[in-house]
Amino acid sequence: MEVTGRLIQKLALQSGVGKSGSNWQKQEFVIETTDSQYPQKICASLWGDKVDMLNSFNIGVTVVVSFDISSREYNGKWYTDVRAWKIALAGQPQGTAAEPSQPAAATLPETAPEITTFTDTAAEDSADDLPF
């Protein structure tokens, strides 16, 4: 999913050690939607190495946030998480903002290979003239 909005707040970086002993970090941020008559505020989170993406954006800029939404139940209550996986400046072409650099795609050769066609003379001589 994607939403466009103005970055209005960056919350404090949170970090810790998980049950498995691995380190984790999370940073939440708030955007205000700009594409409707009634703007809404959305708090999303970045996890792990994606936290660094947020550092390249200043408060007040308009961004496009790509995210996933998941919900889980705990003791009869439901909790919803908005996890961002990409942030880009609004109006920028794809692949030019704060996303990890992608390896260059392989380029095709300038000249196309020569195509050779074969004709089946035995099929022309047969009495069966089916079009396929």
Cα-atom radius of gyration = 26 Å
Average pLDDT: 79
What percent of the residues sit in helical stretches (DSSP H or I)? under 10%
Sequence of strands across the biggest β-sheet: 3-2-1-4-5
**Intertermini distance:** 45 Å
Fraction of residues in β-strands? over 45%
Low-confidence stretches: 96-113
Name of the CATH superfamily of the domain at 2-89: Nucleic acid-binding proteins
Shape verdict: extended
Strand tally: 5
Q: What's the CATH topology name of the domain at 2-89?
A: OB fold (Dihydrolipoamide Acetyltransferase, E2P)
What does this structure look like?
With 132 residues, the protein is mainly β. It has a domain at 2-89: OB fold (Dihydrolipoamide Acetyltransferase, E2P). It is built from one helix and five strands. The chain has one helix at 121-125, and strands at 2-17, 23-33, 41-47, 62-74, 77-89. The chain has a five-stranded antiparallel sheet with strand order 3-2-1-4-5, with no helix packed on it. The longest helix is centred in the C-terminal third of the chain and has 5 residues, at 121-125. It is extended, with a radius of gyration of 26 Å. The two termini are 45 Å apart. The model is unreliable at 96-113 (pLDDT under 50).
